[in-house]
Design a protein that fits this description.
It is built from eleven helices and 18 strands. The chain has helices at 15-26, 54-59, 98-111, 155-160, 215-218, 224-230, 236-243, 287-306, 312-342, 344-356, 360-367, and strands spanning 8-11, 31-35, 48-50, 70-78, 84-95, 115-118, 121-127, 130-135, 140-143, 145-148, 171-180, 186-192, 195-201, 207-214, 245-247, 253-258, 266-267, 270-272. The protein starts with 7 loop residues before the first strand and ends in a 7-residue tail after the last helix.
Length: 374
Amino acid sequence: MRETDDDVVIAGGGLAGLTCAIHLLQAGVGVILIERTVYPHHKVCGEYVSNEVLPYLSVLGIDPFESGAVPINHLNFSSPKGEEISCKLPLGGFGLSRYVLDHLLYKRALELGCKMITDTVGSIVFKDDSFEVFTNASGAFKAGLVIGAYGKRAVPDQKLARPFIQQRSPWLAVKGHYKGKFPDGLVGLHNFDGGYCGVSKVENGLINICYLTDYENFKVYKNTNEFERQVLYKNPLLKNVFEQSRPLFDAPLTISQVSFEAKEAVYDHVLMIGDTAGVIHPLCGNGMAMAIHSAKICAELCMEYLEGSLSRAELEYRYGKAWELNFKGRMATGRMLSAIVRKKWLFGSLLKLLVKLPAVLPLIVKRTHGQPVR
């Protein structure tokens, strides 16, 4: 067992984990961050970030635009047949690949003195008011606080026996980068039979294409190319995007068993942030901003705990309530929208409403987004 003077161990080094580490490090708290993959690396992600987190990123010493982030201010929404509706995004956002953004946050955390461990967390055990974090290759670490930031689903979820992990999910996500023609300043959200696809630019003129589909629909086809041609191409807008673009990856990135079931913000005393606390449907386009915001909420409450202002029970209660206050409504809206999109008659009714009342679309966007985070 490695005894450590560090106050916090963060399991997972994606957006939420790195953001939380930077916040704590800036406040003088020692942090050990355990991430299984070497930076930089690509991830399955829509790579659109709402501007609501820009003020907070600035406080952390992060300027995405210095690394090539591109402004995005319009949404183009289409039905599987290519019927489309457009609107200006209320707050707007920016496009930046996870390859660049995560690496930017990683370098900032190192600059502030974060202890980085490249390894996989096997299990997290709470006993006698402290934690033991067991890794595959680096031994175990003891800490007073542990923050779970290891993503949508991982081995620690199985060891903790979290309820959602027992349920199989039908969702498969696919992502790739492309070179081609796509308008600046636009995020496209295009529906197809059994799923939806996000398209937007990131740094260096690259186009991110990321879609979510039901695995039962997908497995009928031999590979992603055939699936895209037989299913996604039925939406003429998507067909146009693919035909005017060439893939830059040897093969697209995929992730299966993406669960949108309700999760717990606190489980067995571990504070969960980002996707580990809950995954919003990609059609809402706000998962990255929510991950960053959840890290801020968690870090601020951890500071109060470490300063002696909160007991552990109070910390856990207040974090759970804060998570619900900020994100529960957005998650519910995402689930409702996904259910509507998957039922053709309901989706058709929604589309007719949006055509008649185009001002409704920005209102729906606002339901899944928050106010600027400072």
